[in-house]
Design goal:
- It is a single chain.
- The protein contains 1 helix and 12 strands.
- Strands 5, 6, 7, 8, 9, 10, 11 and 12 form an 8-stranded antiparallel β-sheet that branches. Strands 1-2-3-4 form a 4-stranded antiparallel β-sheet, with no helix packed on it.
- It comes from Pseudomonas iranensis.
Amino acid sequence: MTMKSIWISAAALCGWLMAGQAWADCTPPAVSGEADFSLCKDWPAYPSLTITALSTFVPDPVYGQDGRVGSYDLALAVTTAGSPKPLATYHQRSAFLSDAIALESLELDTARYKLTSDLRAFGVRAHFKGSSRVNPLDETLLSLYVKEGDKLRPVLDRLVVYSFSGEWDGNCAGERSETVRTLEMGKTSSHGYADIIVRSVTTGLVGEGPPDTCESKTTHEKPVLTTLRYDGKTYVLPQGFKGM
């Protein structure tokens, strides 16, 4: 082995160790309340960067005594290993509302959202769950953000990527429906950003009869493809695609 190859191997090992250290240093922001959400995740598209999210619960002044009714502020940041100052930030007051349909969890999404040849977005997925058993409602909303200088800017706002809803008697009779949406970056673009192809798959469930002789039928609708186009500020969502 030549001295050059030894140096390259050592440099690669050093880089691997530094990457491991960056992962170990990924610490979620501190929270102040039990209902708050805090998380962090390394950004594979930019190996030296980490994304953090802090969502702080603000109780409703009138109906928030039980600790579930209110709103959530959202603070995002992109940081680099070894630097206490964020490279870019974003803050939104009352980003999510929580009541009978409560915010259950947040997730940072670092899938390959390649908007241009050199620009990637990251996502925040917010999962909401209803409190009613006979009128169930589950939703997951996806928002996408890009880094522009020292700011993070939303380019996709609360796309419903999962929904489950229905009305039934809690035993058998009634109807329920589930829709799952997946995203793929298109080959065409609008205002410089890649179009996003959304594939929606809906499954239905109908139940009839008493519990001991319950008859259920599952239906599968044909997948539907929808193209989201950037209008220069945001991706425009069709009616029914945007969550609250």
